[in-house]
Amino acid sequence: MPEREVEKSLSLEQRKEVFLALVRAQDESMSVPQSRKAVAERHGLSEHQVRQIEREGLDGQWPPLG
What we know:
The chain is mainly α. The chain has 4 helices and no strands. It has one domain. The longest helix has 16 residues, at 12-27.
């Protein structure tokens, strides 16, 4: 999927939900790769899409970070 394609397929609110799920999974002692895989499966996304959302969330300091 081309860079930023995930932004076209998911709303900002949906991407923030995915990011929050990713952070929560990691807070519950799941490794980063495990959390990416679990969140991708739960939300019907590719791991690449989850990594794009993760980067966007970190860059934007999305909750619960900011």
